[in-house]
Amino acid sequence: MRKSTRTLLAAALVLGVAASPALTPAFAAPPSFATPPAAASTARPASPDLSAVIAGLPRADATAALVRVGGTEGSWQGSSGVHDLTTGAPADPAARFRAGSVTKVFTAATVLQLASERRIDLDRTARSYLPELIPGRYATVTVRQLLNHTHGIPAPELAVGDTVEEWYAHRFDVHSPEAMVRSATAKPREFRPGTRQHYLNIGYTIAGLIVERVTGDSYEHQVERRILRPLGLRDTYLPGEAAELVGPYNHGYQSMRLDDGTTGLRDVSVWGVTDGWAAGDLVSTTADLERFTRALFAGRVVRGPLLEEMFTLPKVTDLKSGDPAAYAAGLSMKRLGGREVWGKTGGRWGYNAAIASTRHGERTLVYSVNSTDAKGQDMNPTALNVMVAAYGLPD
Description:
The chain is an alpha+beta fold. The protein contains eleven helices and 13 strands.
């Protein structure tokens, strides 16, 4: 696929990549990879397209991929690539990975559960819950606007840098959610709340703090007791300040300038995620995320009318593109292959992930792609091709 075509498809397909500086460092020829293992598949007969998409890893854009397709239309599982570039061992299909902004779906579901219990009012202002943290210029921002990115609050200044190398040097920095909110709300608003949409992490950072305020409990424990434990998601967790992944994982790599001045791949598996917190710090597996996706779309995570918040797009336009809003509470929607596909993508250094489904669960998709430029401006080619193979081209 030519790069220009791939770029257009990425713009059309992306379902909400983590909001962080878009970095596009040059990519040199990859190191000499070990002979890649063939794509492994189980369950019902594999989709030829999906098998071909993930076969042949590692490549320049990705070192491993784990994919699950499910739903009433059939199921398929596949994996390809390597556990790590040093040993060349096959990728572990049950491995944990950083799910990035897929976290937002869990956060939105937690807030909506609390709304169903009348402990959070979606139409109440964020300032009424956090009066010491939200200043007067944002006094009218509501909880619903935090969840659907129509709040107008800009991103915080993290004082990290503009290049991947600078971010890597600060990979163990700890960012408190309160400090990030203070930094963001000290700036002028981007637009009057409720009039435009701009996808950023900060709304979910504030939402996580509201969860803590109304429950008197940590955000992490609320997600665990409301979602992880009831669904039996034993390999999913929120890492807090821990930079290392717990349990088996396939290593993530990022293209960057190395110590000898050349450009190549560096292992970035160990990297703090406090800059994401309730917007982007989840660690999971494809099996757990598939179970979560099925339960969510079946109405077993958020029940009743409040589930529709996750499938209701605000009637505003995007701040940058001017296109109709694409983000609801937690989920985003694109038309692929002639039907609506709802889901969420995420990106942390070395890892891209996604969950997606048609509205009534006819076809679900979960993937983890160990991308070598997971926060680039374009969607990772392997991840993009997985999405197209699963659902079809954008309408």
